[in-house]
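Entry for the shared binder. Reason: the reviewer on the internal report wants the predicted structure included alongside the sequence.
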Amino acid sequence: MIARLSADLASGALTEALADIAEDAARVILPYWRNGVVAESKADDSPVTRADREAEALILARLEAAWPGVQAVAEEAAAANGLPAEGGEMFWLIDPLDGTRGFIEGRESYTVNIALIHNGVPVAGVVTAPATATTWRSGVPGAGAFRRTFGDAWRQIRVRERPAAPMALLSHSMTDEEAHRLAGRHGCTTWQGTDSSLKFCLIAEGRFDAYPRTGPTSEWDTAAGQAVLEAAGGRVMGEDGQPLRYGKSCFANGPFVALGG
């Protein structure tokens, strides 16, 4: 199955298929958005809804049907059944609804994330924003990143050259004082708050320049966005200055920064 995955990755068929799966998951999620969805609390006190669970079930079933036997690490299954000790040589990382708190509050910036990891590296990734019917994906290795509105043709995207007044994207949970300090640390004169992996995609398409993160994240929060951003010419680096890698202990990330040109 690894040979087939590698062939599909090389041909471009993989991320095309992942985009279709993510967009179908978005169609599962949308009827719950701004419709009185009820949240439950998981063991870590983070929220989960029926939309999260139903979207994840669809994604896992479709991945297994297309590429049977490939390990999958998905947020809600991990919360219910526990994490594996580590990631294998090749495995999926899935967040069926990234930005659940904002989703519950009716904000638009929640996403569906699907990534393929090979030897710790995100080699393919798709991010879908259901509220705006938009999908971003990595392409054939070395061929760039792409964006489409549901039903439209793909358009290639690329990070912009760093402007004289760079702009940062930051988590909504930060205070203004914290945000100004963190943005300034990376040379950004202005910043905007938003949720989810959408931040990686907005940098990938050349609208912003940096996304620094000091608080905890899980690997399924970042892998798909990293794949898209790196395909578009950007970088995602940990505190050691090296690209963020996957399959780590507890599938947890330390501080990192995502950068455009």
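Summary line for the report: The first helix runs from residue 2 to 11.
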